[in-house]
Design goal:
alpha/beta, globular, binds 2-phosphoglycolic acid
Length: about 260
C-alpha cells in the first residue's frame, strides 16, 4: 500500500482530488466508486471547484456508490442519495443516467444486489474506488467479521457505527440498523483504490488496516491484498503508524506524488 501523509485534512482532500482529476484526464469515461461520510466532503468540494474553475469534465463519467441505508428514500436528507446529490452531483456535469447508488427502498434486495454487481461489470468495472474508513476499521458498511470475499448485500450495522453516525441524525434511535453495501470482494476488484482518513479518531483503525494482520475484524486490512491501493492521510490519522518515517521518506523522494 502506498501511504501519503498530508499535514491537514484540507490538504488530504486536495491531494485526493488531484488523483481523481488525473484519472478523469487520462480516461474521460472513467468509472468512479464513491463514498459518503464526512471524510470525502473536502474531496467533493475540491472536485466541484476543479469543475467550475478548471473545466474538469464529468460528462462521460459513471459512478457507483458504496452503500445506502435500508429504509431511507432518496429524498431523505440522511440518505446517501441525498448526500451525493447535494455535495457533488448537482454541482458538476455528470449525466443522471450514469449515477448508480444502492437502493434503500427496493422490495427485492437480493435481486437488486445481483443487478448492482452486474451493472458494475457491464460498465467495465470500477477504475478508481474512493474509500473512507470507520473507527471500527470498516470499508463501506463491511463491519467487523464481514467476509473478505463478500459481495453487495444487506449488512447489519455494528453498534460502534451506529454510535459514530448518530451525529447525522436527530437521535441515535433514528440511525437505520441495516444498510445495503458493496462487499469487500466487490471493492477489491476496482483497478485502483484510494483510502482517505483524517483525524485522531481514525488513527488506530488506519494503523490496523495498513500495518496490522489481514483480518475480517478490520475489513480495511483486506486492502493490503490490492496491487494498487493509495492511502492518503492527514497527520493525525497517520499518527499511530509504526513505519511513518519510512512512508514520509518515500514521499520526499517522489516530488510528483499527490
Ligand atoms: P466518516 O465515515 O467519513 O463519516 O468518518 C467513514 C466510514 O464510516 O466509512
Amino acid at each position: 500500500m502506498e501511504v501519503i501523509v498530508q499535514e491537514t485534512a484540507p490538504e488530504m482532500s486536495k491531494a485526493a482530488a488531484r488523483v481523481v482529476a488525473h484519472v478523469l484526464n487520462c480516461k474521460p469515461n472513467a468509472v468512479l466508486g464513491l463514498a459518503t461520510g464526512s471524510t470525502p466532503l473536502g474531496l467533493y468540494k475540491e472536485l466541484v471547484r476543479l469543475h467550475v474553475e478548471e473545466n474538469l469534465d464529468f460528462s462521460q463519467v459513471t459512478t457507483f456508490n458504496l452503500d445506502e441505508y435500508v429504509g431511507l428514500t432518496q429524498k431523505d436528507p440522511q440518505s446517501y442519495h441525498y448526500f451525493m446529490h447535494e455535495n457533488l452531483f448537482r454541482h458538476v456535469n455528470i449525466s443522471k443516467s450514469n449515477i448508480y447508488i444502492p437502493s434503500g427502498t427496493t422490495d427485492n434486495y437480493a435481486a437488486f444486489c445481483q443487478w448492482y454487481e452486474q451493472r458494475i461489470i457491464d460498465c467495465g468495472g470500477i477504475d478508481l474506488q474512493v474509500l473512507g474508513i470507520g473507527s471500527d476499521g470498516h470499508i463501506a458498511f463491511n463491519e467487523p467479521s464481514s467476509s473478505l470475499g463478500s459481495r453487495t448485500r444487506i449488512k447489519t450495522l455494528a453498534k460502534q457505527t451506529i454510535d459514530d453516525n448518530a451525529r447525522f441524525f436527530s437521535a441515535p434511535e433514528q440511525v437505520p440498523v441495516y444498510a445495503i453495501t458493496m462487499g469487500v470482494g466487490t471493492i477489491l476488484e476496482a483497478r485502483k483504490i484510494m483510502l482517505l482518513a483524517n483525524g485522531e479518531s481514525k488513527a488506530l483503525a488506519i494503523a490496523q488496516a495498513v500495518e496490522g494482520p489481514v483480518t475480517s475484524m478490520i475489513t480495511a486490512s483486506a486492502l493490503q491484498l490490492h496491487r494498487d491501493c493509495l492511502c492518503i492521510l492527514d497527520r493525525e490519522a497517520a499518527s499511530r503508524l509504526k513505519m511513518l518515517d519510512y512512508y514520509t521518506w518515500i514521499q520526499a523522494k517522489m516530488p510528483n506524488a499527490p
